[in-house]
Fold each of these.
Amino acid sequence: MQPYAIAPSILAADFARLGEEVSRVLEAGADIIHLDVMDNHYVPNLTIGPMVCTALRRFGISAPLDVHLMVTPVERLIDDFLAAGANYISFHPDACVHLDRCLQQIKEGGAKAGLVFNPASSLDALDYVLDKVDLILLMSVNPGFGGQRFIPSALDKLRQARRLIDESGLPIRLQIDGGVKQDNIRQIARAGADTFVAGTAIFGQKDYRAAIDGLRRELEARD
Ligand SMILES: O=C(CO)[C@H](O)[C@H](O)COP(=O)(O)O
């Protein structure tokens, strides 16, 4: 994957034309496609299941599909999303009883495993499983809806996660999700993120290439 990866969240896409929307952001330079799976139980919203992942593969999308599970329980859906062609599957530690087992389930299924932390959750759940994690996703909004404002305390948590990753020497991606825009992505990258989920900042714009180029320009100019 790129040193900096841009992951458009389909939450802000036009679901009536999802295949075309995803093709368009990939042609515009997106690296991976972020799928927000919400169950109206762990979060107060309801979105998509594995059949959408399968449909995107059938449509011809070969780019990495990055599935963010905002559901509880997570176990059965992990298998369903593995079968549907997900490349990354991330879940919230507080939505899962047997965290180590779920991480293994994802990895044995051939996908990369991620743990997700809400704005007010500490990173303690990483203590005994860091070596089994391929991706740490920090939420910079409370999960459930797109179009919210970036919560600034996520910057300190990014720095903390970046330290953990660098000290471990493990090739873990550090993803940020929520309120990422052209006017804050540079600061977010400086705090340690390398993978940027953006919904409204990409799918909410008319010109996807201009939106992605604008984010990249900020990343390249960050120092
Ligand atoms: O996980 C999410 C919400 O739970 C979304 O991915 C996230 O909020 C992205 O949307 P936006 O870039 O519009 O903030």
Amino acid sequence: MTDEGTGISSSPALSANGLGKRFGSRVAFDDVSFEIGYGEVFGFLGPNGAGKTTTVRTLGTLLTPTAGSATVAGLPLIPDNGVEIRRRISIMPESPGLYLRLTVLENLQCFADLYEVSAARDRIDQALQAVHLTERAHDTCGSLSKGLKQRVALARALLNDPQVLFLDEPTSGLDPVAAREVHELIDGLRQRGVTIFLTTHRLDEAERLCDRVAILNTTLRTVGRPDQLRDELFARTLNVRTVSPLSNPADVFLGVESVSGWREDGPSTYVLTVTDPALAAPGVTRALVKADADVLSISVSHHSLEDVYLELIDVPAGLS
Ligand SMILES: Nc1ncnc2c1ncn2[C@@H]1O[C@H](COP(=O)(O)OP(=O)(O)OP(=O)(O)O)[C@@H](O)[C@H]1O
């Protein structure tokens, strides 16, 4: 569905409603619901065995769901739509699955034939350019590093110019430089308006790349923007350190705009719960100066997506 005049689609690129998949008595994932807009980069996080790959394979029409419903690239996920959905999407699996004795170009030609890509040579050239591999087109895939193989797999996933791209752990096993290159490629795809469904164990990756993330552990634990999840789960705090203990901290802190509580966190260290750190910090500074306190530092505490993840996933005792 397209909004008149704007050309922008108003229906979600991907949606799931109570979606589930079980293998016999084993539940791979259950009761998963979300909506993803066109052009969004959506992170799908969860521990080993959480059901991420099975969700991707189900949305990618490779497995049939056992519960719920979904739409993929604007089409209901039903067997009759399988061919058309596969035409509109691509899946880049965790392992590249290339023919190692064939060159990069031959691999792409092979897959372009398989996918019946029209104007194949142009699409291959565009895909090679998108992943910066034009120079390596005639190298055999067996001679490429893991990071370069991953780029070939990404080029293959781009051959059909997908509306929705599923990336299953695209940086698994890559060194930081190769991972950063993949991140830059994903950024480039986002700028071209490709909707990306990204499964990853790397929380820094999700935080850097994703507009929103979902945390899955067989069922969905939460969906939201990383900063929104942090704010929902953790109170905002200011950390104040002074040279010597304050004689009456309550008198100093309470009454400052935006400060709703305080506690001591060791000698001369105070943690203040605040509604808005940007408002609270200058007020607290003024109050400390007025009380003649020698201030060592005032800092806003930052929670990472990892904190959110660990809070929501049941981590076995002793591991957190
Ligand atoms: N074909 C299958 N037959 C039976 N069980 C399966 C099958 N595929 C997956 N499972 C089970 O479904 C659950 C979810 O697996 P899945 O591979 O989707 O998890 P994941 O989140 O992708 O894990 P990882 O991060 O380790 O790749 C696991 O318990 C797994 O053993």
